Amino acid sequence: MAGSLREPPSFTPGSSSSSRDTDDEGVRGTCEDASLCKRFAVSIGYWHDPYIQHFVRLTKERKAPEINRGYFARVHGVNQLMKAFLRKTECHCQIFNLGAGMDTTFWNLKDEDLLPTKYFEVDFPMIVSRKLHNIKNKPPLSNPIIELHSEDTLHMDGHILDSKRYAIIGADLRDTHVLEEKLKKCNMNTQLPTLLIAECVLVYMTPEQSANLLKWATNTFETAMLINYEQVNMGDRFGQIMIENLRRRQCDLAGVETCKSLESQKERLLSTGWETASVVDMMELYSRLPRAEVTRIESLEFLDEVELLEQLMQHYCLCWATKGGSELGLKDITY
Ligand SMILES: C[S@@+](CC[C@H](N)C(=O)[O-])C[C@H]1O[C@@H](n2cnc3c(N)ncnc32)[C@H](O)[C@@H]1O
Question: What angle (nearest 5°) sits at the alpha carbon of residue 11, between those of residues 8 and 12?
Answer without folding.
Answer: 150
